[in-house]
Design brief:
Two copies of one chain form a homodimer.
Chain A (H helix, E strand, L loop, with lengths): L2 E4 L2 H9 L4 H23 L4 H6 L1 H11 L5 E4 L5 H10 L38 H15 L5 E6 L6 H12 L5 E7 L8 H5 L4 H7 L3 E6 L3 H13 L5 E6 L30 H21 L8 E4 L10 E2 L1 H15 L3 E5 L9 H6 L4 E3 L4 H13 L3 E7 H7 L1 H9 L5 E5 L17 H5 L5 E4 L4 H14 L3 E5 L5 E2 L16 E2 L6 E5 L1 H19 L3 E5 L8 H8 L4 E9 L4 H12 L6 E7 L8 H7 L4 H10 L1
Parallel strand pairs in A: 2-3, 3-4, 4-6, 5-6, 9-10, 9-11, 11-12, 12-14, 13-14, 17-18, 17-19, 19-20
Antiparallel strand pairs in A: 1-7, 8-15, 16-18
Chain lengths: ~625, ~625
């Protein structure tokens, strides 16, 4: 009993066709686009409401009233994708049926990708927008093309160094073809920007970089119109419009201004609304739209209702590695007083809240500034601290790559923890699916890499990094709760480069790591055994870049069929290391070695859908193994 | 007949012991330190005179008059290492004998490393200094320690985003324990900063970040004293002192102010002076010192003279890959009008001058801003251009790692060229020895990686990237001129994943790439053949991440001893890929596979010295292969 509501194409068309003043037309359009944004997120089960809504008037005004032939608009922050899609769909720039396909395979990716009509640049980690805008304008100049580039940046994004790095040459080259609009909703992923890493005086900052600066109300179409019109008149300078907005704008109880006194976190940054929240928000928006339509003498909306797809809950016990990590971190924090924790605006997602609350002096919130965070970690380590630095794996490994190496060159001990690792969740899309972090960190001398496969192994891995390993460690964590069908032996202990057999089997052996892949391999082994009488030995090998050759030799034994299963690209993943180790074993017989994993930048979709698509689910593995 | 001169310890001691006014004492000390700096660089055959000299008064004043118990000083730019060492040695903080060991194994690294007494932070690529200073101060705060952190930044370094990223939290946390001095000599690696990427109004920039700002004359001790004294009084704000300096200050003809009208490049940024330049500069400094000593009634200097070690020139024909690349780039530029070239302040070292002069409209100087450069490249590619982006491999691969992946996610075609690749030159030290770039870029789907082994192959590789490969390419270039003992067959052509045999041999096969390693392997094969009757098949395999299995099988043939030789860390290098491929071949016999390369962050030293140290020279390879 969870109905979902959306606005049909016809309603957008009649509003766009109506002879209405631009402001009124765009205002109505924005409310409709918000209804569909909510629909898309609720249907997908995830997405970012807060910044889709804070940006809505900007999207709507730009697409309905600003863009002319040769102009482009793109968003650099990416979280606002549902809002952007909704506007593109309402405006007819993106096939209407996509409204039902947010975060689905072959549909609309969780974050923008140029494979989608109307999208002109991919987002990645934050801060790339001005650089991309410059590239577009320089290409236009070379080809004698006209056209304004409108780029929407988040305000949290302004903590990234690349943003400021990129401002200089835009001003030096007098690129007045660039207009940056900052969605200044004042709340980043975790909480208020001022509490994470205050941006200070943005007006003087932008002006000091030689940019033309304006400030406006980004949820007021009148104010936006005025600011954009002024920007158009500026010659010889790129322009920035700091658009003050309200996160969640348009639905009273989702608006950041409605956060009660004393509450720290904003609830609608990411994730789907509850059925009650959804119902209430949509009703409010429909009423608002109908009132506006009535004002201009138009018929009320013709809402379509559908039932929400019921998500089947997993049957077995679901394990949550982030929660286990949160607990383990608190425990090591209590006994290791030199341990300090760093975060880059993902304290909830990375499981840091308990530590922060218990040891606020030893918790450092660094904001969206991974490079800065990791260089600080190195200095903290040289001064006797044991820094544990956190972000999503997709941001930490590439963005702070040079800084991690620089720390390695000082031979200090640091612990890096990358969560949201691997192919899943697949909903956010390739910017968040971290499938090359192992590869990116492979060449760091002295950096041991570990990934736990279940809650129990999480604490073991963290303890190993803190207490046993004298050098630095990278801990890779899968964030999604996962149903774990296996149990680690009670006497299991970590031994560098050695794994643990979870099933016996003499026909083939498969090496895997992490909850998703070990579980899928384990389930595959059960199917192979029961349905095909095929014995697959499943080995959990949590060491991502260390394989003990003797142990490997003994584990393979007389088996001639060896598989390696990566939650990562084949290139640079664990499987490659296992293959290399097999070559070094110089076995005096033919041993077939096959790697399973990814070979391309992954598609976005639902978790099971994507796992099946890449034939990395248990059923896919079974058939691939039987294919030989 | 190239005499070198240095100041003995006793001369420093008598000046430090003399009852002189601080300013006068430091002034004399600075001149002496300059003489020894020049000695160290001339003896090493390389080093950075320009910024060692522009910073000299800052070093001298800080070490003689400012630092108190608990205070630290470090340089973030690193180029100034010879000047810094000279001051540390003169001040007695670093063992005197090190004066003879710049850029030598076991001596003083080309860029600062904490293994050297008196050095408290390693440099890497630029822009990490403030982050490190913050880490130090936060650790001090946690432990209740006092102490000021003085950090010297270069002005070119202010183009790096991390620098600005790191300013925010220093101000938000009110870290008045940080004093940044900017050596504002106005010339970066290539030329004037204003012509590379103008920094604009630095005063308003720093102030907008909430820092206390002062400007002073950084080559005037009086002015420096005053500014540092003011900084000490500032509470609740980190402070920056923009110290206007003259690059090459102290030697009339090396001073940037002496660059003739119309000349673009500054000659003394890096490299050793000619014997005539050295003689003339040293004489000028000695005369200045003696005059100052006379002024205060002290005896003239007691100069020590030694003969310069004569560097033995290679006997055979030396090939220069960068020069070959410059020519090849000009050629493809002439026939591919959509090709654009990007540089990050290394246009001379990367061989871009000919292209820039011929096609100034298609040349984009991006400054020391690799992230910004690569994101611009992606946008240029989406707009129909073929961007060829340049930097040293050690900066390009890690610093723009995320941006390269983001471009890969857009499936646009980009060409990335990393020069100064590999272990050599070993003089600059680990920050510049790029031995993990292959690894860092391994997991980029659709990125082909190629390294040419000689001048002839350079053009082939670039042509392949431009004309044949539909996807993106990383071209890895060794920068040092190298004596090439082999000749590629005249009918040799590139075929993806396949190499070329340079010697016949049936006892073992070795795979290598690039001029250094292929040459050493080739020489090793000749020694093995003539001295030991051992047949080593040497294969040049320019494909760093692609091996054709059939070709590999045929190339190995019936040989049971396979070697892979990396100019890179073993981890993530080509050898690992070859090993993995051998495992996938599933040969029905025992094949010994051994990798040669690096397993640790490399040491600094002279090229041959370091190659021998790691047993990667032909003689080392011979003995390792005979060891089996």
């Amino acid at each position: 009993m969870c109905p979902l509501y959306y606005i049909r194409k016809e309603d957008f068309t009649r509003i766009l066709d109506a002879e209405l003043p631009s402001i009124k037309q765009t205002q109505i359009f924005s409310v409709l686009a918000r209804i569909n944004t909510l629909y898309m997120i609720a249907r997908a089960g995830s997405g970012h409401i807060g910044s889709s809504f804070s940006s809505m008037e900007i999207f709507a005004w730009v697409y309905l009233n600003v863009l002319r032939e040769g102009d482009v608009f793109f968003s650099s922050k990416g979280h606002d994708a549902p809002g952007l899609y909704s506007v593109l769909i309402g405006r007819g720039l993106l096939e209407y049926e996509n409204i039902h396909k947010l975060r689905r395979l072959g549909g609309l990716p969780g974050h923008p990708d140029i494979g989608t009509p109307g999208i002109v640049a991919n987002t990645g980690s934050l801060g790339m927008g001005v650089s991309k805008a410059k590239g577009m304008v320089l290409a236009n100049q070379l080809d004698g093309r006209q056209g304004q580039v409108y780029m929407l940046a988040g305000d949290g994004e302004l903590q990234e160094g690349q943003f400021w790095e990129s401002l200089l040459s835009a001003a030096n080259r007098k690129l007045d073809q660039i207009t940056v609009i900052v969605d200044h909703n004042k709340i980043q992923s975790d909480t208020w920007i001022k509490d994470v890493s205050d941006l200070g005086d943005l007006e003087s900052k932008f002006k000091s970089y030689g940019w033309h600066f304006q400030r406006c109300n980004g949820n007021s179409l009148e104010s936006l119109e005025k600011a954009i019109n002024v920007a158009k008149t500026i010659k010889g300078k790129p322009q920035v419009i700091l658009a003050d907005t309200v996160k969640g704008c348009g639905v009273s109880f989702m608006e950041s201004t409605s956060i009660p006194e004393g509450e720290v976190f904003y609830k609608y940054h990411s994730g789907a609304p509850s059925p009650e929240q959804y119902e209430s928000a949509t009703k409010e928006l429909i009423n608002k739209a109908d009132a506006l339509l009535k004002e201009v003498g138009m018929q009320p909306l013709n809402i379509t209702m559908v039932e929400r797809e019921v998500v089947v809950a997993p049957k077995g016990k679901v394990q949550k590695l982030i929660a286990a990590y949160e607990k383990a971190l608190l425990e090591v924090g209590s006994r290791r007083t030199n341990l300090v924790v760093q975060d880059a605006d993902l304290m909830i997602d990375c499981g840091l809240l308990s530590f922060k609350n218990s040891y606020p002096q030893r918790f450092f919130e660094c904001g969206i500034a991974e490079q800065d965070m990791i260089s600080q970690a190195g200095a903290l380590a040289l001064k006797g601290k044991l820094p544990v630095s956190h972000s999503f794996a997709c941001f930490l490994a590439p963005r702070a790559n040079e800084q991690i190496y620089n720390n390695a060159s000082e031979k200090s001990k640091c612990i890096y923890v990358g969560s949201l690792a691997g192919l899943l969740p697949a909903g956010p899309g390739h910017s968040h699916q971290s499938v090359r972090d192992i590869s990116a960190l492979r060449g760091m001398p002295g950096l041991l890499m570990l990934e736990p496969c279940c809650e129990k192994e999480v604490a073991m891995v963290l303890d190993y990094a803190v207490d046993t390993n004298p050098n630095s460690t990278y801990i890779r964590l899968v964030s999604i709760p996962y149903e774990i069908p296996f149990v680690l032996p009670s006497d299991y202990g970590l031994k560098e480069g050695e794994g643990i057999c979870l099933t016996e089997g003499h026909d083939a052996v498969i090496f895997a790591y992490g909850p998703v892949m070990v579980s899928e391999a384990y389930k595959a082994a059960k199917i192979l055994e029961s349905d095909h009488g095929f014995g697959l030995k499943v080995v959990n090998l949590p060491w991502l870049n260390a394989v003990n050759l003797e142990w490997l030799d003994a584990t393979i034994g007389s088996i001639n069929e060896v598989y390696a299963l990566d939650n990562h690209l084949l290139s640079g993943g664990q499987g490659e290391i296992i293959g290399n180790a097999i070559a070094r074993l110089a076995l005096p017989r033919k041993v077939d070695f096959v790697q399973f994993g990814l070979t391309e930048i992954p598609e976005c979709g639902q978790n099971q859908e994507i796992l099946m698509y890449y034939r990395l689910d248990s059923v896919g593995l079974v058939s691939r193994i039987l294919e030989g």
